[in-house]
């Protein structure tokens, strides 16, 4: 017996029946539904009557091949995915502008550096390296910091990282490095982690990676936010001026709000509580008008400096310490607009190191040279054809004229008859020796060889310099990180080989790591091509703590509140947050909100389970006697306080919160970072301190929270 058809389509059918057709200004047929919404169409522009049901023979019969709307819809859906980036798959981008402070004409003829105040549109994509697109934001990993500047002379892509050195010296090793870091091929895990055998196997067999190892084991690889991390062009580049004179240059992005990282114990918890922590942070700050900003600083030097420097300036595993060659601020980068569509912009943006305008050139850094070859290939594969430059996010914003034509998805072709040059029709663009890109004509001569220069052979001295430049808590995090990562390595010889390298960096660090891994004896130091230099001075610029913000601006306070909470303290806290240009979230037993002591209503942002303290830079406990009694029954409320304390955060609390401090086991350990909030003065005192972000002196008392 035939069943009656359901009425799921009746509403939409009725709407379509009633729709009015009218002609638009351009003479084209516009179709509008009653509510003013545009009418759904196929990709061919045909109006769709029913988007709820496929075309069938009878209500319960087979589907019909006539259903071109269904066919097109599913066909397009089936092709929605493009290959994810082979590295840096997980990323998040934003638009903004780059603004030059002063003319750099003496060094470079690049147009964007000619005039003070010149603004250039920019797009930035931040990323992790190893994880897939869907991996969590707080993986311990290097962060990509790729900047596309749409200059008047074509796009300049500065495709950097948040670490100024790299693992390898020659691009030919890149596939090996990435294969080793990615999930192991037979078992397809671990995802977005370096804590496994193949990574440390490769690293321990690659001594040139040792400087980078110190950086990646530091808190640099677990940044608090994209907004609080540095970026680096890594390689030595060249500026070339109008007289064709070259100056070497290294590029550094310095965050206006200072550096900040989370703790490893926090990172693993953040990944569970909010795997999009970094995305959300950038989204929220830009949407609320708190535009993140970085300063571009350049280290400029000539051949004489390069010849006199301790290391080879072409070696991408080395830095030039800022104390030796201070960087100059030359411009700022402000991110002030989120993309309209993630896929169209952030996913399809194609960065290429070889995109440089006239006046910026390459050095012979073998990693950079290899990169210049690689990025074009990857875009072809990922974006499906040579016309990816036609996508709005990749197209230059200056006029451009080529004779390139056809190919998949050509959005524009040269107009006219002559699609070549020279031609005698007087058509098309012509090259310009005066304005066009001129490569710096460096003298190059030598035999064809596969040879690593001897000047690249010192693999340990700068690793040591990085380590001794860290504050004691940062040093202990490096040790804890090494112990953690190597504890996940199942092959004992790999662990030993790694520690044998660390012995060449710092013996005390090596023995701490060996002890943490339960070694019975120390391995012999690894054979080194060159002995580790002990004379390199510490560089305070390498420490995150030294580069901390000393203020709470741009940070987030988590306010744990209950019904009956003291409204005077709450208001004073909000006043101080506004003064400090910081933000907050209210965490309450119920997400709807709380009734304050004066009967006023405050909406909550999170219920306790959804807002653990790891999501905040500091916390305030503004609770009532009754409220705290209820909180004592919540394990998450206890964890909120206990974690904040363990993670060395500042905790402000009203006297009524003391039972919760007791429940969290910290009432007997209160220190200068746990501050009572009673009135305006005590709230102000809390905000005097909170800009320090962490009470590092507490860390030894709470026990290591991991590196
Ligand atoms: Fe790379 C992407 C940064 C070495 C090959 N790289 C990529 C991205 C960043 C970097 C930030 C993501 C860009 C985006 O957001 O779309 N890569 C670096 C840095 C390196 C480096 C700072 C060393 C200093 N990379 C490197 C080498 C090679 C590559 C040596 C190959 C020889 N990188 C690629 C790539 C990617 C890429 C495979 C993948 C997706 C893409 O290019 O667009 O071509």
UniProtKB/TrEMBL annotation:
Signal peptide residues on this chain, from the entry's feature table: none
Region ranges (Disordered): 1-32
Catalytic reaction equation(s)? 2 H2O2 = O2 + 2 H2O
Q: Name one GO molecular function term.
A: catalase activity
Domain Catalase core per the UniProt entry, residue ranges: 41-429
| Cofactor(s), by name | heme
List membrane-spanning regions. Answer: none
Role of this protein: Decomposes hydrogen peroxide into water and oxygen; serves to protect cells from the toxic effects of hydrogen peroxide.
Name the protein family: Belongs to the catalase family. HPII subfamily.
Q: Which PANTHER family match?
A: CATALASE (PTHR42821), CATALASE-B (PTHR42821:SF1)
Protein name in the entry: Catalase
